[in-house]
Amino acid sequence: MAIKVKCPTCGRLTEYSPENPWRPFCCERCKIIDLGAWADETYSIKGKPVEADDDIDITEDSLATGEIPDKTILNEK
Hints:
Layout: E1 3-6, E2 13-16, H1 28-39, H2 60-65, H3 71-76
């Protein structure tokens, strides 16, 4: 017997079982709505901001060696 759970998107009761290909959602539409919310950054996981690639100091030496220096080491000089 499958358990019933509330769809995270619409709240409708749905089976949480292998027979439901969209579990824990009730349908593909609710699954896509949820995915869109993550893509729009409506949902997020709290944590430290991630350093973007454009914040990394890449020098000619690092391109030649293939090693990107640690930014904290660069700031200590």
